[in-house]
Amino acid sequence: MWEYDPVLFSRLLTELTLTFHIIFATIGVGVPLMIAIAQWVGIRKNDEHYILLARRWTRGFVITVAVGVVTGTAIGLQLSLLWPNFMQLAGQVISLPLFMETFAFFFEAIFLGIYLYTWDRFENQKKHLLLLIPVAIGSSASAMFITMVNAFMNTPQGFELKDGVITNIEPLAAMFNPATPTKVAHVLTTAYMTSAFILASIAAWHLLRGNRHIYHKKALHLTVKTAFIFSVASALVGDLSGKFLAEYQPEKLAAAEWHFETSTHAPLVMFGTLDENNDVKNAIKIPYALSILAHNHPGAEVKGLNEFPKDEIPPLYIHYLFDLMVTIGVLLTIVSAIYWLGKQLKWKWIMSKPFLASLVAAGPLSMLAIELGWYFAEVGRQPWILRGYMKTAEAATSSGHVDTMLVAFSILYLILGIASVAVLINMFRKNPVEKELAERSLEQGGVS
Amino acid sequence: MALEIIGISVLWLFLFGYVIVASIDFGAGFFSAYSDFAKKKHILHKIIQRYLSPVWEVTNVFLVFFFVGIVGFFPKTAYYYGTILLVPASIAIVLLAIRGSYYAFHTYGKTERNWYLLAYGLTGLFIPASLSIVLTISEGGFVEKSGETLTLLYKELFVSPLTWSIVLLSITSVLYISATFLTYYANEAGDMKARELLRKYALSWSGPTILSALLIIYQLRHHNPEHYNNMFNVAWMFVVSFVFFVITIYLLWKKKRYGWAFVSLVLQYAFAFYAYGISHYPYLLYPYLTIYDGFTNKTMAIALILAFIAGFLLLVPSLYLLLKLFLFNKKYVKGQL
Ligand code: HDD
Ligand code: HEM
Ligand code: HEM
């Protein structure tokens, strides 16, 4: 029989909103940096192609910002609407970064408004570029603050809980909890990486379709180069995140690796299946790699799942989420490295259709890795909402109607998703690069 | 001063900021849509676009600031309001989402859809109406507490005359505030046709705002006598508020000093808004939650206030820059930039 369960529906609605918001949030964090890089290169090389690149990215960006803002407002309210018990408890300890985040938004919103409407107001382009710095700082800072909140949920500290009463609060200790450094660094680097790959996908798409305009080649070069740098950074920080887990959330790492018995010289298990006795089948095993990921030493001991109470172990399917994220990360690093190497060595085939196709796929794959990573991190924290203190089921609202709201928001996001894609496509189709270049009579670009 | 009072004053200030900037935004959206259907688009459209374009995102942040801040300073509100507001707040979120995205799609994406324009204009009235429900609920009588469970009494809420008076005030205020501001703005732009039309709107919505405000006070007498009696302690603030109202109307009527007319309108609302807030003291949700038992701990409160001061020092110059470049820039306002 079907039964109304507010906890289940609250989870589904939170997942839905965050899954949707994170797409726009990631773009919101990464793209201002990319715009700034393009505009800066344009000014330095005195090349109008890059300036136009920055202009066109900005135009697309405002659409994604708008959706980011409305979905962000939704999740901000939903945290209290769906998890009132959690917010009441955690709010006493972790509201500081949440509060500071709104200032970061404020800062970003003000300067974005100014930046958008002052393209032709300044004689000196550099002054206009300066306006973008607060935008980039504001959006990265907001990601940092919200990630601190999420880090706190994973490794809460900075308070004492006795009989439901919270005492000895240290807001700074709560903000700078053990999960904060790796989490913030990984979220930021992957957001920059993903944004660069998405913009690279667009350039590669035009080249693949046979439009060999130098404008697209410059765009591809700039974006893939940037993406490569941030992919390497993401992988390095990802490795550090693994070490963090081994130390502070060993059950998450063990579940991600299907590592049941505590042992030394632990192998890394990629993919595969589990049988009824929890024996791993059909997997690729990389010897010692788990010990290295966890402690930087092939002989190190890694805690296994059997050491934890049965009802405090996260769902084991997060193994696939983790593997897919890492696989995508490694593949994309390789693809962008090949591009760079090919450029240096003047390989012709990096402009061939199959290779361009792989670059087109890079953007969507990278966004998929973001989603997988978040699902891994969040599902891997279950059954806890505040690890060690409050379970997800205790945190949810008791309100009726969560199911109706789930339906309403599904429809809303569906419409928003379709509409934003349609508007973006329409916007750039109506005003292709060639037309805009002709209008500005810049066919030649600049020097370089 | 007690930390609780500082906290609620800061939040009330931002809520007031939101009421003013959002009213301008919502009303502008409504007038813009209305003028389109009434075939007066050419008169109003440009003026409204020029004002709204650079500032719409900033408007939204005021709201975010308020609801994040209130959970920070008063974590228990997350529990009380979070539990009961699921449906009304979700409706407001959906409306805000339609409105925000429409605005961006339309302005930057240059899409033209008539039904969407209609939705945009109407959300300008529905959003303030749905948000104002929270004020009604805070007056008490619409929430039932049995043991640990809280339920919102939808039927009582829906049939209460207090609800509808507050809704009425929110809608008329949106139109009045917005028309007065846009009159000033059109005047700065030297667009006399738009100015005359907007001035007419402003004058015709001024009366209804006062009437609905009186209606609310009358309802409160029966609904929440405690609050009603407290209002007399701050009666002078209501009187000052009314004086500013008269000044605004006088200036609009005489076609003089539109900027000052708007300043006086802001003061009118500020006095009334604070008088209302002060007389509501100490309740956040009558009679269950006061600012004292809902308050966060002292350490966090001080941290939040410090963060607020630091943030404020950052924001004031930035906001000044925004206003200087757009609102107070004659060339921009006139469409020469
Ligand atoms: C483009 C996206 C992307 C890519 C390519 C990677 N990750 Fe990642 N990963 C994320 C996007 C992401 C994320 C979305 O940003 C997460 C989710 C939550 C978080 O803190 O970051 C994350 C979480 C996350 C965690 C969990 C941290 C925690 O729960 O506290 C670990 C251990 C890793 N990652 C490790 C890696 C490794 C070893 C990678 C190797 C290449 C890797 N990630 C690539
Ligand atoms: C920093 C910010 C974040 C906070 C404060 C936060 C908050 C929460 C809360 C309250 C839950 C409990 C609900 C549940 O267990 O289903 C949850 C779970 C979840 N969150 Fe996060 N979240 C954050 C970031 C994200 C992001 C960016 C995503 C991206 C997609 C995400 C995805 C999820 C998912 C998928 C679950 C469900 C876990 C499950 O199904 O068991 N979260 N999060
Ligand atoms: C529970 C989690 C989250 C909450 C409560 C939340 C809240 C919000 C809110 C309220 C806004 C709109 C602000 C405005 O009015 O301007 C917003 C936008 C934004 N959020 Fe989230 N957010 C969450 C998760 C995240 C995560 C995990 C990231 C980054 C990794 C992120 C990055 C952003 C960015 C950059 C924007 C600005 C929109 C843009 O510029 O595109 N958010 N968020």
TrEMBL record, chain A:
One of its GO terms (molecular function) is electron transfer activity. It comes from the Bacteria. It is a multi-pass membrane protein. Belongs to the cytochrome ubiquinol oxidase subunit 1 family. It is found in: Cell membrane. The chain crosses the membrane at residues 20-41, 61-82, 94-117, 129-153, 184-207, 219-238, 317-342, 354-377, 405-425. GO terms for cellular component: cytochrome complex; plasma membrane. GO terms for biological process: aerobic electron transport chain. Keywords: Cell membrane, Electron transport, Heme, Iron, Membrane, Metal-binding, Transmembrane, Transmembrane helix, Transport. InterPro entries: Cyt-d_ubiquinol_oxidase_su_1. This is Cytochrome D ubiquinol oxidase subunit I. The keyword Iron applies. The keyword Transmembrane applies. Its main location: membrane. It comes from Parageobacillus thermoglucosidasius (Geobacillus thermoglucosidasius).
UniProtKB/TrEMBL annotation, chain B:
Pfam families: Cyt_bd_oxida_II (PF02322). One of its GO terms (molecular function) is electron transfer activity. It is found in: Cell membrane. It comes from Parageobacillus thermoglucosidasius (Geobacillus thermoglucosidasius). This is Cytochrome D ubiquinol oxidase subunit II. InterPro entries: Cyt-d_oxidase_su2. Belongs to the cytochrome ubiquinol oxidase subunit 2 family. It is a multi-pass membrane protein.
